[in-house]
Specification:
The chain has a single domain, classed as Hypothetical protein apc22750. Chain B (Translation Initiation Factor IF3, 2-Layer Sandwich), CATH 3.30.110. The protein has four helices and four strands. A four-stranded mixed beta sheet has the order 1-3-4-2. It is elongated.
């Protein structure tokens, strides 16, 4: 396989992976590993010793090369907002990849910030 063909193939693979999104299960399994803040599920809030600091926080993640990069960028934004709010945890309320143009999606996340003991 010649060098130009390999480069074209790599380009096509990168392009196709940048257009994909992740399933809800993939997001919920991956996001806690990407944030420094504690990930609290909706069902855990009932039994946790946490106080809401900010409800309804939204963040539009910078566009990454892949869906995983998008999620990594969202995790950084979540951690920054949790820190700004004076907390140490968050609840992911919703997420959505929004189509920017025919080839580009951008991840939007909605979450609450919490302070947990």
């Amino acid at each position: 396989m010649n060098k130009l063909l390999k480069l074209n193939l790599i380009g096509v693979i990168l392009f196709l992976t940048s257009c994909t999104t992740m399933s809800p299960l993939q997001v919920h399994n991956s996001l806690p590993t990407l944030t420094k803040s504690k990930y609290i599920t909706q069902s855990e809030i009932e039994t946790s010793n946490c106080k809401y600091l900010t409800k309804g926080r939204s963040f539009v993640a910078p566009i990454g090369m892949t869906a995983k990069n998008d999620l990594t960028n969202a995790a950084k934004g979540i951690d920054e907002w949790v820190q700004i709010d004076g907390g140490n945890a968050y609840i992911l309320k919703s997420f959505n990849w929004v189509n920017i143009d025919k080839d580009t999606n951008q991840l939007h996340v909605d979450f609450d910030t919490l302070l947990c003991e």
